[in-house]
Inverse folding.
């Protein structure tokens, strides 16, 4: 981790810049390559023309620019695009780089590449050129935006063999446009020609591409280019349909992933050879792993290649909440490194549900999405569709957030997370376990765990299943939210972690499937769980689990031991107390012997030393009320099994899909139970305690000599469905943080309110009180 990056660029470039003569500079700037330095200007043309790099090779632009803006041009904009107005907006929002539409589906400059369709509204105007020049003159970097995945009919008629076709030979279309095939010369020749032309004419700092990865998984292309490539690589024919149990379809999935990486590499080779080593190409990527899977974008491999991730995740989903933005920031940094940047397109218009491209999103809703992104290490990038708006409120949201970001950016980048809980994920699990039901099988369980951690105010990081060994030293517990698919080496990593004393919570079908999603006879982690599946028919088990996952049943758990006397016959609930002491994971449930569940369970065999703390109560009728009594109040089907490894690691196995239920229904019992189990598995080794009413997303980071706590108040969003249009302040917040060796814990700053508050240290914990939080607060402790 390179901590110095964050502090160096802003200071050193600004100071070097002070003596610049603006007029001399502007003369040179027209054809120049410029590196950004805040709102000031630097002329870098003399040293390395066309390379877009700081002289001396210090820090390239894609590692320095932290505030982006995008006016996504509509076809009609060339007629009335008011560049002067937008330059003022760049300045007002402290924007350092702009994403400008260049070409692909539509060219916004006079292109000479054959069949590169120019906007009919250009009428001779070179809009991309004018905007690039204006941005460069203002000291901004330019990310030339491409959209390379479809074309107009004229193009299709000229090269029908460059387009994707279905099994009957019909071209795939999106509206009026024809979808190009990723294995055709459209990607190998046409797009590289455009990239070269744009570099030569305009010298943008780099390229980004809106939808670079072509046809998604739901549509199989049967064109000759695809047939030949697949045959050359595998010796087989393209599979006729999507069947996850078919080995050829599985190969087709891998072949598709590989092709997208080839396109990533080809485009980078093209732009770098034309524009220098820092003229990078970075296709946009999604905020959803399921979305990445459906589009064959391998996040881990992309992050291995990428210098920057351009994240296209513009608004919260109806179910996910603002917290998804901090989550995806942390997840991508886990792959990319925390010293690189992840700007994210943040819609200022009413994106999400419903979408209105030309209406302002309610300001609190837009602001909260931006803030939660920053809490996860994401950089802001305002995004408008169209260059003029009659709803002028749209222009007032970004400014305050961006100006606050500029004032405090040294605390918002180049930091590493401080968390002792890691939530495991992998794209392979999304693909081959999630299959066509990723929401149900993968996303909902993950969301339940994540929301339980946030509700419990427990900092966590997403951990890729291949990175468990790398992260193990920092973590006290791992959570496997129904991670059905684990490779052998991933299983070994988890075993090593627990044998070394680490804790584990695994839910649902975790470790029950191999790398292709084929069922094992027993859990690969059964030794850690102290539990084994007792179902012989693997295929039947799998299909029943998938069928049941979609529904909600009238089922319960029985907590053990019961705290009321166990009697035969009908129970009144008023039986006298018995002397029982419950385990810590059942804390808070003393006034109940049952918990609602909603899912279903299969019998398990448990090892003698394993402890079963909850048993399953099978389904019984809800309606009519006369029938709503337990048919089978007692079973020995385990719902929660605790086990301790020889190395002292605590393991909790919940075959029950409580996480999926919590992700779906938000019942507080489920969230509290999950948080209890995680705290127990982590042996209470959690570096943060926050006491307050309200839902707060707590993200803790370390920078050289200081701790940074980013608290985001989700209370309003938890109260209302989107959009939030009013904040509900919460407070006071009593906070305890365990300091680190290089953090003295003597000084405290609040970067949002600016309030003063005392910090004291007691028994190894720093503690302090924050009077109130409206939207968010950033605490810096040094
Ligand atoms: Zn094809």
């Amino acid at each position: 981790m390179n901590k110095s990056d964050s502090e160096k660029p802003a200071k050193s470039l600004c100071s070097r810049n002070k003596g610049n003569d603006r007029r001399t500079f502007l003369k040179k700037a027209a054809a120049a390559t410029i590196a950004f330095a805040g709102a000031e200007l630097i002329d870098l043309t003399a040293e390395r023309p066309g390379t877009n790099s700081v002289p001396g090779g210090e820090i390239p632009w894609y590692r320095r620019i932290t505030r982006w803006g995008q006016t996504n041009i509509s076809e009609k904009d060339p007629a009335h695009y008011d560049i002067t107005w937008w330059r003022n907006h760049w300045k007002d929002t402290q924007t350092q780089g702009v994403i400008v539409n260049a070409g692909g589906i539509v060219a916004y400059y006079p292109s000479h590449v054959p069949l590169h369709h120019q906007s009919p509204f250009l009428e001779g105007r070179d809009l991309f050129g004018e905007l690039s020049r204006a941005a460069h003159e203002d000291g901004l970097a330019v990310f030339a935006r491409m959209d390379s995945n479809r074309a107009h009919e004229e193009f299709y008629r000229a090269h029908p063999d460059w387009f994707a076709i279905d099994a009957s030979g019909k071209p795939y279309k999106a509206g009026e446009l024809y979808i190009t095939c990723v294995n055709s010369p459209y990607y190998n020749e046409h797009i590289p020609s455009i990239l070269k032309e744009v570099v030569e004419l305009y010298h943008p700092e780099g390229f980004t591409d809106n939808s670079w990865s072509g046809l998604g998984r739901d549509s199989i292309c049967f064109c000759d280019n695809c047939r030949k490539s697949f045959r050359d690589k595998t010796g087989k024919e393209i599979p006729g349909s999507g069947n996850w149990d078919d080995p050829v379809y599985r190969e087709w999935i891998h072949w598709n992933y590989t092709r997208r990486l080839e396109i990533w590499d080809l485009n980078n080779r093209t732009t770098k050879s034309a524009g220098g080593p820092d003229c990078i190409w970075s296709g946009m990527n999604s905020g959803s792993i399921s979305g990445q899977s459906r589009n064959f974008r391998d996040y881990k491999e992309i992050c291995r290649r990428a210098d920057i991730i351009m994240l296209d995740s513009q608004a919260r989903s109806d179910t996910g909440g603002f917290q998804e933005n901090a989550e995806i920031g942390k997840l991508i940094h886990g792959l990319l490194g925390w010293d690189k940047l992840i700007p994210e397109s943040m819609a200022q218009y009413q994106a999400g549900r419903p979408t209105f491209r030309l209406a302002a999103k309610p300001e609190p809703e837009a602001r909260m999405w931006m803030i939660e992104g920053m809490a996860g290490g994401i950089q802001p990038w305002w995004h408008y569709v169209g260059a003029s708006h009659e709803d002028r409120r749209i222009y007032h949201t970004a400014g305050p957030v961006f100006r606050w970001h500029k004032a405090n950016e040294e605390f918002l980048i180049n930091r590493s997370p401080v968390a002792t809980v890691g939530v495991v994920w992998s794209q392979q699990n999304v693909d081959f376990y999630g299959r066509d039901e990723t929401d149900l099988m993968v996303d909902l369980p993950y969301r339940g765990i994540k929301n339980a951690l946030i509700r419990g105010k427990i900092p966590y990081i997403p951990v890729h299943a291949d990175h468990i060994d790398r992260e193990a030293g920092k973590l006290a517990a791992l959570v496997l939210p129904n991670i059905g698919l684990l490779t052998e080496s991933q299983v070994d990593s988890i075993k090593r972690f627990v044998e070394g004393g680490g804790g584990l919570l695994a839910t649902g079908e975790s470790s029950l499937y191999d790398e292709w999603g084929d069922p094992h006879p027993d859990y690969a982690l059964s030794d850690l769980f102290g539990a084994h599946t007792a179902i012989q028919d693997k295929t039947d088990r799998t299909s029943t689990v998938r069928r049941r996952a979609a529904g909600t049943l009238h089922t319960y758990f029985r907590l053990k031991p019961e705290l009321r006397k166990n009697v035969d016959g009908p129970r009144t609930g008023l039986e006298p107390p018995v002397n029982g002491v419950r385990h810590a994971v059942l804390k808070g449930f003393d006034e109940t012997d049952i918990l609602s569940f909603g899912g279903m369970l299969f019998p398990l065999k448990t090892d003698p030393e394993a402890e079963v703390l909850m048993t399953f109560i099978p389904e019984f009728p809800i309606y009519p009320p006369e029938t709503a009594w337990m048919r089978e109040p007692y079973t020995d089907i385990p719902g929660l099994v605790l086990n301790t490894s020889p190395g002292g690691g605590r393991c909790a196995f919940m075959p029950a899909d409580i996480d999926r239920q919590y992700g779906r229904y938000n019942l507080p019992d489920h969230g509290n139970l999950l948080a209890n189990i995680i705290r127990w598995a982590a042996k209470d080794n959690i570096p943060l305690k926050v006491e307050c009413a309200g839902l707060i997303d707590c993200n803790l980071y370390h920078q050289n000599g200081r701790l940074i706590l980013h608290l985001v108040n989700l209370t309003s969003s938890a109260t209302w469905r989107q959009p939030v249009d009013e904040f509900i302040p919460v407070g006071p917040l009593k906070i305890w943080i365990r300091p680190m060796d290089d953090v003295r814990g003597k000084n405290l700053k609040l970067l949002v309110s600016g309030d003063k508050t005392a910090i004291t240290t007691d028994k190894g914990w720093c503690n302090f009180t924050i009077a109130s939080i409206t939207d968010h607060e950033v605490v810096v402790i040094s």
Notes: The longest strand covers residues 97-104. Residues 164, 181, 183, 221, 223, 225-226 surround zinc ion (CB under 6 Å). The first helix runs from residue 4 to 17. Residues 1-56 have pLDDT under 50 and may be disordered.
